[in-house]
Design a protein that fits this description.
It is built from twelve helices and 17 strands. The protein is α+β, with helices and mostly antiparallel strands. The protein starts with about 25 loop residues before the first helix and ends with a strand. It binds S-adenosylmethionine.
């Protein structure tokens, strides 16, 4: 996840100062590739608040291919007023890592819209539609709940999503749930409730499962290797079942037990050997024809987390790039400290098409569908 990422884990190659001034042919190609990766644009909603009868939100947004278009935002279809461009050092980092052409004030925004105009809906839809105002990349829409439900404590939120902010945690959960729902409807013509049995593999503290269970009560099973989070889910999420599993497959489930399996930010932590074992297990427990949705840290995430030219080429060359060990589970699974099981992993899109195709039909890979960061891999069990 974006905020959780520690690029200091593998500081083996440092950016060379002044290189942008006289790029080599390879670096020029990289600059073009970097812009192409932004073909649909990219954006993030950092902060949302209600103030004096208005909904105010801050974030940053890159128009498609970094073209100098007017930034425009809509809440439930109502256009918002861009009231400012707040200075935020985080945006400088984004500008640098994506090699953007403008300075950070071009990308940072603050928007406002009167509450009375947007009405009282459960999930507010926030869209980025630069330039002409036409819909661009609906998988990047953000969804907001103005009255967040019960939440896990800060430690648990940090462990699974890298954010201590309860509103952001809620926003990420509901947006990710609705991005997957959009994919199910678009690629399989089915909603959550149309599935008989759904698996959330690596559910954590039900950041997303709580919302999926609202759509499909009593159809969801969440599993995770983290015993502490599974106990929390059992106590707090009553519309689904939860089960602790071991680090290695198999699970206790019969062949073809689920017609929908999803896993967010789990393959972004596993070595290639563990990845292959789990792909095989997920294939086994998915019904033939069933849908499988997985997230990866792909090229867009890599640029946002790092942005270094040589490491980017390494990712493209290797396909699966181990970016160091993740300490996130050390406190709940002490055996993690010495095992090296839990890592930070990036995947190139080409690698996913080539290697994961051994296990599933790859239907599509959708850019930055999760928080403008991880890509969504849409698959079908043959
Ligand atoms: C970054 S967290 C994401 C949690 C949750 N999917 C979400 O998006 O909020 C990764 C989760 O995967 C779990 N995990 C790691 N390896 C796993 C495995 N082999 N099987 C199931 N869960 C695993 C971790 O314990 C952790 O809860």
């Amino acid at each position: 996840m974006p905020d959780n990422f520690d690029p200091t884990l593998t500081p083996d190659l440092e950016a060379k100062p002044g290189r942008e001034d006289c790029p080599t042919k390879l670096e020029k190609t990289y600059q073009i590739a970097r812009r192409a990766l932004l073909s649909r644009g990219l954006w993030i909603l950092w902060l949302v608040r209600e103030e004096n009868g208005e909904l105010i939100f801050d974030g940053w947004a890159i128009p498609p291919q970094d073209l100098p278009m007017r930034l425009r935002f809509f809440v439930n279809g109502i256009e918002c007023t861009v009231v400012g461009h707040p200075v935020d050092p985080a945006v400088d980092t984004v500008v640098k890592r994506y090699g953007l052409s403008g300075n950070s004030s071009r990308y940072a925004f603050r928007c406002a819209v009167p509450m009375e105009q947007i009405g009282d809906t459960q999930n507010l839809r926030v869209e980025f539609r630069p330039g002409s105002g036409r819909e661009l990349s609906p998988y990047q829409d953000w969804y907001l709940r103005l009255k967040p439900g019960p939440q896990p404590d800060t430690g648990r939120r940090l462990r699974v999503a890298g954010t201590a902010d309860p509103d952001m945690f809620e926003r990420l959960g509901v947006s990710d749930c609705l991005a997957m729902r959009r994919a199910l409807l678009e690629y399989f013509g089915r909603d959550y409730a149309d599935y008989e049995s759904i698996m959330d593999w690596g559910c954590g503290c039900a950041r997303v499962a709580r919302f999926v269970a609202e759509f499909a009560p009593r159809k969801l099973t969440g599993i995770d290797i983290d015993p502490d989070n599974i106990e929390w889910c059992k106590k707090n999420i009553t519309q689904a079942e939860f089960d602790r599993i071991g680090l290695d497959p198999p699970t206790r489930f019969n062949d073809g037990s689920f017609d929908l399996v999803y896993g967010l930010s789990v393959f972004s932590h596993l070595s290639e050997a563990d990845q292959d074992r789990w792909l095989m297990e997920i294939q086994r427990i998915t019904k033939p024809g069933g849908a499988v949705l997985m997230s990866i840290q792909g090229e867009i995430a890599f640029l946002r987390a790092d942005g270094d030219f040589e490491r980017f080429l390494l990712l493209e060359k290797k396909g699966l790039h181990v970016y160091g060990r993740s300490p996130d589970l050390d406190d709940v699974l002490p055996e993690m400290k010495n095992s090296g099981y839990y890592k930070n992993i990036f995947h190139s899109r080409r690698y996913v098409y080539e290697r994961w195709n051994r296990y599933f039909e790859i239907v599509d890979v959708i850019d930055a569908a999760f928080a403008g960061y991880q890509d969504l891999v849409v698959m079908r069990r043959r």
